[in-house]
Structure formats: structure tokens, C-alpha cells
Amino acid sequence: MYPDLLSTYGDRGNMLILAHRARSRGIPADTHEVFLNEALPAGDIYLLGGGEDGAQALAAQRLLADRGLHRAVDRRAVVFAVCAGYQLMGSSFFAKGAKCEGLGLLDLYSDRGPHRAVGEVGGEVDPKLGLPTLTGFENHGGRTHLGRGVRPLASVKVGIGNDGKTEGAWNGTVLGTYCHGPALSRNPALADLLLRWATGEDNLPALDETWHNRLRNERLTFTGMA
Ligand code: GLN
């Protein structure tokens, strides 16, 4: 979604990684980059990345007017949203000092923190999801507060995430995180979770994870999470 507005820190790479991991298993994958003036096409997985405050507010206005993402979630399409995109999933967020309406697709809201959260972020993933340690890079001024209708994606061992205690959130097939990096290059098991949700296929064949694991191990060692 909106690679011209929402793709800081290489978040567009998440699309390439998902397509590659699907095709490597013989699952056909068409990718489509949706620009600001386009209506939302039908899809199985929607990706939203990070963005500066102005871009984030503009994206929210367009998505609220379009309502295509709401319809997609109603039919259980998968949404993976990073940082600004993640904040957009909640009921409200702050951009350039103003409170903005979010999409209300996850039971959470974001306000502003005492300082920007910049650096490595990670921790243990919600056991319900069965994934290894989450690792990423964060850069955001907002703090996110979770309601009862979502579960945290992870507990925080390193960095700030939502509020210094938890990081990210998920409910149904909508999942948000503050992890850039892009997130799925450091967390290939998370990529496969999204593919399993989208395809309903629980047994995806294993792939060669040599390069992902080198990156993961380097970052997990660097942050003391190894
Ligand atoms: N503008 C938002 C914030 O600072 C999101 C930033 C981002 O996506 N990196 O909180």
C-alpha cells in the first residue's frame, strides 16, 4: 500500500520477501503496488510500511475514504502493518501534533512518547503464534496502547516497541509491529505465518534460511538476545 508514502527503511522489501517465499513453494504470487490515487484492488495480503507524520496522516485519510481495507479485513484478508502503518490500524494516532482518526481495525490507539524510540527492538513472541524471537529496528515518536481486543505480538527485551513492555499487536489476520529492517528479512518465520494465514496451508515446505539466519544471529548477538 502507498509505497510512495509508507515504505521507510525498506519496508517494501516485505512484499518481495513474501512473493519470493510463496513462489519458492510453487504458490503463485502477483504483487501490486497501490499508489495514492488508486482504489484498493482485491488481494490476499495487504502490506503497509512506515512513514513520516504528514505521509501517515494522508494515508489515513485515503484509507478511511476508500474503506477497501475494511472490506478486505471483513473477508479475512491478511494485513501486515509496520510502524506508521501499524499506528493507522488503531482508533487514533498523533501526527504533527494533531490527533488523527485511524482505521479502527485493531483495538489500540497511539499517542506521543517522551522521546523518539530509535534503535534495535525485539523480544519473545506471543506463544500462541509459535515463532522465534522477534528482531527489528524501530524509529518512531508514537507510543501504542493496546485494548482487550488484541494480543501483543511480543514482550520487549530490547528497545521500546509499544510502550517499553510490549511490541506490536495482532487479532485475527491483522498484525502490526514497530519492526522495520524490513521486518520479514529478519523474521522469516513471521513471513511464513502471514503466508499460512493467507493460504490456509499449515505445512509450508522448509526453505534455505542461511542468509536470514546470518542476519538474525548477528542482530540477536549484537542486542544480547541470542
Ligand atoms: N510518524 C510515526 C511516528 O513517529 C511513525 C514513524 C515511522 O513509521 N517510522 O510515531
From TrEMBL:
<keyword id="KW-0961">Cell wall biogenesis/degradation</keyword>
<dbReference type="GO" id="GO:0140282">
    <property type="term" value="F:carbon-nitrogen ligase activity on lipid II"/>
</dbReference>
<feature type="binding site">
    <location>
        <position position="116"/>
    </location>
    <ligand>
        <name>substrate</name>
    </ligand>
</feature>
<comment type="similarity">
    <text>Belongs to the CobB/CobQ family. GatD subfamily.</text>
</comment>
<dbReference type="GO" id="GO:0009236">
    <property type="term" value="P:cobalamin biosynthetic process"/>
</dbReference>
<dbReference type="GO" id="GO:0008360">
    <property type="term" value="P:regulation of cell shape"/>
</dbReference>
<dbReference type="GO" id="GO:0071555">
    <property type="term" value="P:cell wall organization"/>
</dbReference>
<feature type="active site">
    <location>
        <position position="180"/>
    </location>
</feature>
<comment type="subunit">
    <text>Forms a heterodimer with MurT.</text>
</comment>
<dbReference type="InterPro" id="IPR011698">
    <property type="entry name" value="GATase_3"/>
</dbReference>
<comment type="pathway">
    <text>Cell wall biogenesis; peptidoglycan biosynthesis.</text>
</comment>
<keyword id="KW-0378">Hydrolase</keyword>
<dbReference type="InterPro" id="IPR033949">
    <property type="entry name" value="CobQ_GATase1"/>
</dbReference>
<feature type="domain" description="CobB/CobQ-like glutamine amidotransferase">
    <location>
        <begin position="2"/>
        <end position="187"/>
    </location>
</feature>
<feature type="active site" description="Nucleophile">
    <location>
        <position position="83"/>
    </location>
</feature>
<dbReference type="GO" id="GO:0004359">
    <property type="term" value="F:glutaminase activity"/>
</dbReference>
<keyword id="KW-0573">Peptidoglycan synthesis</keyword>
<dbReference type="InterPro" id="IPR043702">
    <property type="entry name" value="Lipid_II_synth_GatD"/>
</dbReference>
<keyword id="KW-0133">Cell shape</keyword>
<dbReference type="Pfam" id="PF07685">
    <property type="entry name" value="GATase_3"/>
</dbReference>
<dbReference type="GO" id="GO:0009252">
    <property type="term" value="P:peptidoglycan biosynthetic process"/>
</dbReference>
<comment type="function">
    <text>The lipid II isoglutaminyl synthase complex catalyzes the formation of alpha-D-isoglutamine in the cell wall lipid II stem peptide. The GatD subunit catalyzes the hydrolysis of glutamine to glutamate and ammonia. The resulting ammonia molecule is channeled to the active site of MurT.</text>
</comment>
<keyword id="KW-0436">Ligase</keyword>
<keyword id="KW-0315">Glutamine amidotransferase</keyword>
<dbReference type="InterPro" id="IPR029062">
    <property type="entry name" value="Class_I_gatase-like"/>
</dbReference>
<protein>
    <recommendedName>
        <fullName>Lipid II isoglutaminyl synthase (glutamine-hydrolyzing) subunit GatD</fullName>
        <ecNumber>6.3.5.13</ecNumber>
        <ecNumber>3.5.1.2</ecNumber>
    </recommendedName>
</protein>
